Amino acid sequence: MSSSCNAILKALKECLLNSDCVQKQGHLPSECLKQHSNELPEQCQLLRKSTFECKRNMLDMRTRFRGNTVGMDAEKLRQQKTPAPPAES
Fold first, then answer.
1. pTM of the model
2. Which stretches are transmembrane (predicted)?
């Protein structure tokens, strides 16, 4: 998979692993995505849709020239959440 979707995919994995479907009910993350998607938290459902959009945009010829904006937006958000290292004096 392209590196533009890695940030969204990583966030989806983390969300699934922290969901009640995996933690309390003991299902595999793949089972939660396929069979119990309606039980997932809203954040996981939105990340699932974003992952789909990112993968779809990789195949869309119109976005190949412009770049995959779905994946780039996720990467920008990840960079904003990560605090910058303190500057050495």
1. 0.67
2. none
